[in-house]
UniProtKB/TrEMBL annotation:
Source organism superkingdom: Bacteria
Protein name: SDR family NAD(P)-dependent oxidoreductase
Source organism per UniProt: Phenylobacterium conjunctum
Keyword Oxidoreductase attached: yes
Family annotation (SUPFAM superfamilies): NAD(P)-binding Rossmann-fold domains
Sorted UniProt keywords: Oxidoreductase
Pfam family, one: adh_short
């Protein structure tokens, strides 16, 4: 797929972090951008800077997602690119004992479901609705009608203590990549997933520099946190290389996460 002003893209979680970097990289190629996010201030500012459109979208809401795609398509046309970066996490053990009181607690199921609904179901909701729109388009000369990039995590393969919900949600994204790519193959829509390692995103913004340095030192090479621009570079490769399909690719400096 050649990137230029004839192409439109939707980026969920596009107001910051990995999504923002990808929105900027696509816009630099002339692609028209729609940003789905809950942060209105950042989303509106970035959309204005890039000449795109902001849509306040909670990916767990069917109504929000439908309204977001309707607004985006009215402003920039039917998207050929979807990049799913919306997501969150928590750190709760499956069951644990309070060291002071001896009280035993288990992972609240509402908290588990919350993560699954955002990271897994929200991602699938956006994929399904975007793919249905892409199917209405004529194929490009390369044969593509569209390209979808999802964001999983290395935690989907080697989750740490307290990451049961997060790891399950990201493993689900990994697991559905190939069957969705197969579902959409006859219509020329490609689907790939990136598994980032430890990246310097807003989730780590409040961490002290010493903590960030310690995290970066765990990476075999290069010994640092990943940069959002590096995620964006891989996302654009997945989009532009028309033989890239049905793949789950780690982007992690060769790290394999320890139990904690």
């Amino acid at each position: 797929m050649k990137l230029d002003s004839s192409i439109s893209a939707v980026i969920t979680g596009g107001a910051s972090g990995l999504g923002e970097a990808t929105a900027r990289a696509l816009a630099a190629q002339g692609v028209k951008i729609a940003i789905f996010d809950l942060n209105e201030a950042k989303g509106e500012a970035l959309a204005k800077e890039l000449g795109g459109v902001f849509c306040k979208v909670n990916v767990t809401s069917e109504e929000d997602v439908d309204a977001g795609f309707a607004k985006a398509r009215a402003a920039i046309g039917q998207e050929r690119i979807l990049v799913n970066c919306a997501g969150t996490g928590n750190a709760i053990k499956t069951a644990s004992r309070d060291k002071a009181t001896g009280e035993i607690k288990h992972f609240p199921l509402d908290s588990f479901n919350f993560i699954i609904q955002i990271n897994l179901v929200g991602t699938f909701r956006c994929i399904a609705k975007s793919a249905a729109g892409m199917m209405s388009l004529d194929p490009l000369p390369c044969g593509d009608r569209g390209a979808i990039v999802n964001t999983a995590s290395v935690a989907g393969e080697d989750g740490q203590i307290g990451q049961a919900a997060y790891s399950a949600s990201k493993a689900g994204v990994i697991g559905m990549t190939l069957p969705i790519a197969r579902d959409l193959s006859n219509d020329g829509i490609r689907v790939n997933t990136i598994l980032p390692g430890i990246f310097n995103t807003p989730l780590l913004a409040a961490a002290p520099e010493a903590v960030k340095a310690a995290l970066g030192a765990q990476v075999p090479h290069p010994k640092r946190l990943g940069n959002p621009d590096e995620y964006a570079h891989l996302a654009l490769t997945m989009i532009t290389n028309s033989y890239f399909n049905g793949e789950d690719v780690r982007l992690d400096g060769a790290i394999r996460m320890a139990p904690r």
